[in-house]
Amino acid sequence: xxxxxxxxxxxxxxxxxxxxxxxxxxxxxxxxxxxxxxxxxxxxxxxxxxxxxxxxxxxxxxxxxxxxxxxxxxxxxxxxxxxxxxxxxxxxxxxxxxxxxxxxxxxxxxxxxxxxxxxxxxxxxxxxxxxxxxxxxxxxxxxxxxxxxxxxxxxxxxxxxxxxxxxxxxxxxxxxxxxxxxxxxxxxxxxxxxxxxxxxxxxxxxxxxxxxxxxxxxxxxxxxxxxxxxxxxxxxxxxxxxxxxxxxxxxxxxxxxxxxxxxxxxxxxxxxxxxxxxxxxxxxxxxxxxxxxxxxxxxxxxxxxxxxxxxxxxxxxxxxxxxxxxxxxxxxxxxxxxxxxxxxxxxxxxxxxxxxxxxxxxxxxxxxxxxxxxxxxxxxxxxxxxxxxxxxxxxxxxxxxxxxxxxxxxxxxxxxxxxxxxxxxxxxxxxxxxxxxxxxxxxxxxxxxxxxxxxxxxxxxxxxxxxxxxxxxxxxxxxxxxxxxxxxxxxxxxxxxxxxxxxxxxxxxxxxxxxxxxxxxxxxxxxxxxxxxxxxxxxxxxxxxxxxxxxxxxxxxxxxxxxxxxxxxxxxxxxxxxxxxxxxxxxxxxxxxxxxxxxxxxxxxxxxxxxxxxxxxxxxxx
Length: 622
What we know:
Strand 2 (64-68) and strand 3 (72-76) form a beta hairpin. The protein starts with 5 loop residues before the first helix and ends in a 6-residue tail after the last helix. It has 19 helices and 28 strands. The longest helix is centred in the middle third of the chain and has 30 residues, at 322-351. The chain is globular and about 75 Å long. The chain has a six-stranded mixed sheet, sandwiched between helices. It has a six-stranded mixed sheet with strand order 12-11-10-8-13-14. Strands 21-28-27-24 form a four-stranded antiparallel sheet.
């Protein structure tokens, strides 16, 4: 049997590249673009869609591969530099392009400069967004090269019989007691927005947007309660493209009860139907399809007029209604109870040497505590349980080969979250069960100062998130330190833990509609020393109205309400570096943690957790 190692995969792929039929050419294509997204441009993918991982070995959730006949490159951001270096297979064949650094060119620029004259670049147009395709196409054409859509996915041909089968799990309803709004009302609001923007057809491709619209949930993608489907709304009809055999009777009944009379089509028919729909359009028709949707679907629109900004569902989904807000808050309370139990348990095991706890066994125990909580469905991502140098790998996931014991000698970083039927959580805490170094203590304190600065900020209504990013970095920047990931991301309501289109990041975020009451975002500054340690503190914040003595031009001002209720380890702080305002903020936060969580930690089985909570929330002072 042939051993399908990394070199074999690249060799097979390059042979297929040479055989691609290109009009008026004999040498095939000179470069192939491979990403890890599916046909819906999802951040996380099923095993079947992990083409980037299959061909490169890289297991991260973000990155793009370029394969040429004599080179193979991976672009990824600062979350994954260290991880990628250890996973690319074989390492001698690969070049890591560190996206985000000043001297790293974009894929488009690099290809334009490094391809032989008049080269052809191929890609699967189903797996690349319209925006990215157009950016690549423009750059390559300007440089005298060509970008073409491939009729078949070459990585799939190499993968062949080993490629996992498509998922086929049941699709279930998300009841009104959690969604807070009927699907029919959401459809009506979409149509209002369509009319305001002179659109007669709305194409929805983002899986979390479709799940939100229909008040359905699935399990097609690990950790994300979504399912594979497309939706096309006209001013009269709702067309759903899905494998109907996967729909539970409860889901169908609820959709009718929520006043949506849908027309169903096979999932695979989306492209054929799109072309038929376009052919029936008049000069007055306009299709609204996000520029984040695939280039292939955009191409199916032909010459019809298009609107390509974010769909109305994106903003509706980001602004939670009162029921969703209540659900998110109560889910975070239960989640915080589980984390307090875990950290109390872990500290006892490590300090008293009662049990050998590793990164994996610790993560397993944390999941056990979460499973005890009401409405628990599953994790919202793989738990990042990392000790010492593993903490510097920003999205580290322990494996049997890398698993290390958690000790009192190094910093322990735990980033974890859960899916509850009433909300999605994501929280990070960094702890030391022994004596941290003075530098670790200073870095931890500066990360906390950044989190506090952002959390207490007052800002005008619809301020874009990237305007706030520097607040969290200010204390680190002042001594020449930084972190290479965004400061915050949107969070779904029993949906994706990373929810577009909002975020707090140094990167351009052109689709950000501006922060508005009812939005949930993470607040997670950090600092990382490669090969030594990682520090990150993450809370989930709810955007709320701020009480200000003035209201300039009646614009309205906002601030944040922290819904995560897990203590921050005060023994890791250098209190002398904190201002009176920061101390007051932390003492008030800890008082709230104690007040809210204490009633859930009664009884003899919770004595350990309650005592830990009481110690960790003691007030601090200069």
